[in-house]
Design brief:
twelve-stranded mixed beta sheet; Porin; about 10% helix
Length: about 260
């Protein structure tokens, strides 16, 4: 059973991150385009199958040359769906592939992960509120520093907790804001002394925060487009949450749902 983080604690943590970001404007910054295509097949009243590829492209970097394509992603797996009045519970269990082309060296890093993603939505008139937890289980990380298979195989656990609020302006347009906090829960013991943090195994402690603001545009039944601005602040949990990087994303998600029942 997922363990939900209290809303008050998340709100205070988000405020702390905003203050840190505002006081450290000298931290390196990046500009990136982030694209997802989310295909959902509804195979029953309580079951869906999902396939979601993604790509991230870096077009600006204050500390180095822009990296071009910096990440490939692929989510795939089933989702359990339950409804009770105005509440909706979703429980995806997905495989997650992450690929990282390293332009400076010509290397390619990758990892294989399993994601458990419980989320709860509540609708109230034109409002929709949601809490979503991602339990990011990293099982395999391939990179030049892990020079034998025993190092590449391991385990780390990262919790990504998001709170979102959306308001429907019309039947086809809604505005949305969200905050997502990254909290490392379990480190891989064998590789912790070599390198920690994505794309390696995760580190323990708070490492990142993302603030989302955008819109959801319904183009047709089952078809939507969600453009968002995302501000991402990266922090060093071993140095009192020192701000190490800021990333600005233009994120666009195209979602299409098909019914097979």
């Amino acid at each position: 059973m997922a363990r939900w983080i209290p809303t008050t604690r998340l709100a205070l943590a988000a405020l702390a991150f905003l203050l840190l970001a505002g006081s450290a404007a000298a931290a390196p910054s990046e500009g990136r385009l982030w694209l997802y295509s989310n295909l959902t097949g509804l195979v029953g009243r309580h079951l869906a199958l999902n396939l979601m590829p993604g790509i991230r492209y870096e077009f600006a970097d204050s500390a180095a040359d822009a990296g071009g394509i910096v990440m490939y992603e692929l989510f795939a797996g089933p989702t359990l769906l339950l409804e009770l009045g105005n509440m909706r519970l979703k429980l995806p269990l997905w495989y997650y592939y992450m690929g990282f082309p390293i332009r400076a060296t010509g290397d390619f890093y990758s990892s294989h992960n399993v994601e458990l993603i419980p989320s709860l939505d509540y609708s109230l008139g034109r409002w929709n509120f949601s809490s979503r937890s991602i339990f990011h289980n990293k099982l395999y990380a391939d990179n030049p520093l892990f020079d034998r298979s025993g190092l590449r195989r391991g385990y780390s656990l990262l919790l990504r907790q998001m709170l979102r609020a959306s308001y429907g302006l019309t039947d086809w347009l809604a505005v949305t804001v969200a905050d997502e906090l990254f909290i490392g829960l379990i480190e891989d013991g064998e590789t912790a002394g070599i390198k920690k943090g994505e794309p390696f195994f995760e580190r323990r402690g708070i490492s990142m925060n993302r603030i989302h603001a955008g819109a959801v545009v319904t183009l047709a039944p089952g078809l939507s487009l969600t453009p968002e601005y995302v501000f991402e602040s990266s922090h060093d949990p071993d140095r009192d949450l020192e701000l190490t990087k800021m990333t600005h994303y233009l994120m666009v998600t195209a979602a299409y749902a098909l019914r097979f029942h």
